[in-house]
Amino acid sequence: MTRTIVVSGGGTGIGKAVAARFASAGDRVVVVGRRPDVLGRAAEEVGATALPADLSDPAGAERLRAELADRFGSVDVLVNNAGGNVEIGDGAADGPEDTARRWTGNFRANVLTSVLPTEALRELFAPSARIVFVSSIAAYRGSGGGSYGPMKAALHPYIYDLAADLGPRGITVNAVAPGLIDDTEFFGGALDGTRHAELVAQTSTGRAGTPDDVAATVHWLASPGARHVTAQIVQVNGGAENGR
């Protein structure tokens, strides 16, 4: 049976790898993102449908709902991958106004981009649908200051409540929390070799993760084999959360 899979932030990195994983299994995949050109190229490459939308905006989430309802009628898997740290490369915060801008930016980028599409699609979720959020190791150990870690952590109680709410419909709700993942746009070129080596040294596996590592875990959480797994945060970080 062909499923309808929706992946936000599906134009690059982890989201693109997730989309490719589902598409290669024969699922119907819709990738969502703010950059139509990037999204279009990714969709063509992995065999998905591109649907440009800003999911931090209620209008964007509503547009997503309307388009999916019209084209497919229901959604089997939602992967809330869109996000990022707006503070990277932004220098030091200069007073309360600058701090408010940064925290609001990361709230929009990491909380609203997950909560708004999930709420918009509530009535479109098929029986036994799967919802998977992408959190971060920073939700457990911080991000070295700033608002990114707290915003990712804010998703966790929402996930627990959502799992309890949707469980009677056979829907599971989980998250993956990656550590350092190479080949993404997350750091925007701001991670130097020394810091990269430090982060790798914190793992037990001696390597950075890859987008495919995360995609494989997301794919399993959306599989029949994970039908009794819900309200869980699965860490994909090579043991780095425990540090060294």
Automatic annotation (TrEMBL):
It comes from the Bacteria. Signal peptide: none annotated. Belongs to the short-chain dehydrogenases/reductases (SDR) family. This is SDR family NAD(P)-dependent oxidoreductase. It comes from Nocardiopsis endophytica.
